[in-house]
């Protein structure tokens, strides 16, 4: 599955993307805001990420920017029974609306796949991610839970959000 947005191309990862994934993600300030990525993030981790099989119900994508290459990732995952979204953007592309644009593309895919509700969260010390989620139409649930982060080496408070894909925007 592939999707185009105004500036971006969302596509599955291929094994030859490992070096680009590593170049984009291997900064502590990026990885510490993810739950499942280890720190330090190394080439074996990038290879493993690039080789994750796609689940047609909850696919994940690399964010490709023409003339720049792979600059991040966005995708679905399962959090219990809930379908969750997650993303990371290479630091050089922070503050340019990339996460919001990629997220909008992901929501379009979610609707196409028949998802009616999505969840997401951000670690409490990463409010910029909360701003992205609100731009995408997610609303804070009022719940803050402890979530494990491999890179942090422990639990940290996670602000939870939900988004209905059936409401008019």
From TrEMBL:
Key words of the record: Transferase
Keyword Transferase in annotation: yes
Molecular function in Gene Ontology: acyltransferase activity, transferring groups other than amino-acyl groups
Keyword Transferase included in the entry's annotation: yes
All copies of domain N-acetyltransferase, residue ranges: 19-166
Pfam families: Acetyltransf_3
Gene3D superfamilies reported for this sequence: 3.40.630.30
InterPro entries on file: Acyl_CoA_acyltransferase (IPR016181), GNAT_dom (IPR000182), N-acetyltransferase (IPR051531)
Protein name as catalogued: GNAT family acetyltransferase
Species for this entry: Aurantiacibacter gangjinensis
């Amino acid at each position: 599955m592939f999707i185009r947005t105004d500036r971006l191309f969302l596509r599955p990862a291929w094994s030859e993307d490992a070096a680009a994934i590593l170049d984009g993600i291997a900064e502590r300030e990026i990885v510490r805001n993810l739950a499942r990525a280890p720190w330090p993030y190394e080439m074996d981790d990038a290879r493993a990420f690039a080789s994750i099989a796609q689940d047609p119900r909850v696919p994940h994508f690399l964010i490709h920017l023409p003339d720049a290459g792979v600059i991040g990732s966005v995708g679905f995952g399962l959090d219990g029974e809930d379908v969750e979204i997650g993303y990371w953007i290479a630091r050089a592309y922070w503050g340019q609306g990339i996460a919001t644009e990629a997220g909008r593309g992901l929501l379009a895919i979610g609707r196409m796949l028949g998802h009616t509700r999505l969840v997401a969260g951000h670690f409490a010390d990463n409010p910029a991610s909360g701003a992205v989620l609100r731009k995408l139409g997610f609303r804070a649930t009022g719940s803050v839970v402890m979530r494990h982060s491999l890179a942090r080496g422990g639990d940290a408070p996670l602000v939870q959000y939900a988004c209905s894909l059936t409401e008019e925007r």
